[in-house]
Amino acid sequence: TIFFFNLSVVNTTSIANCMSSIEVLNGSNYKKWRQNLDIVLGILDLDLALREERPKLPAVDSSHEVKAKYDKWERANHMCLMVMRRTMSEAIRGGVPKSENASQFLEFVKEKFLESEKAETGTLMTSLTNMHYNGNGNVREHIMKM
């Protein structure tokens, strides 16, 4: 079930409930973490910082609309960073370069997991190519091990 919230009536409990649906990023669950993160940030209307570039700092004489758009982006960026950092294990968080831009921070996380995914793929391919049927048991069991 997907819920949409009006941020003016969102309370701490509903935010906590959404946050609890994001499994802590621990090294082996990047895709699921990212999917849940995107859903929660979208539901809470905080994904603006991931969808749009940072707007230019408004001039003193800028319209209220321009200033409001900038403030909304800044808040979304800050909240995205807090949610992402809160839903990562300490070991993962320590291995990701610091950034004050949510989109850039998320890109750093993605790069970290692409590297480990490639290494894991290499290990699995080596294991697969070195497996040999030893004649014990049936072929189906051997294939299932693969």
Task: Give structural notes.
The chain has 146 residues and is mostly helical. The protein has helices at residues 12-20, 30-43, 48-51, 64-86, 90-94, 102-130, 139-145. The chain has a domain at 12-111. The chain is built from seven helices and no strands. This is UBN2_3 domain-containing protein.
Low-pLDDT parts are none
What sequence of helices (H) and strands (E) makes up the elements?
Answer: HHHHHHH
Q: Which descriptor suits the 3D outline?
A: elongated
**Largest beta sheet, briefly?**
none
Residues in helix, %: 55-70%
Organism: Cephalotus follicularis (Albany pitcher plant)
Protein name: UBN2_3 domain-containing protein
In summary, what is this structure?
This protein is mostly helical and 146 residues long. The protein is built from seven helices and no strands.
Task: List the main descriptive attributes of the protein structure presented here.
146 residues; mainly alpha; 0% strand; elongated; UBN2_3 domain-containing protein
Secondary-structure blueprint:
Blueprint lengths: L11 H9 L9 H14 L4 H4 L12 H23 L3 H5 L7 H29 L8 H7 L1
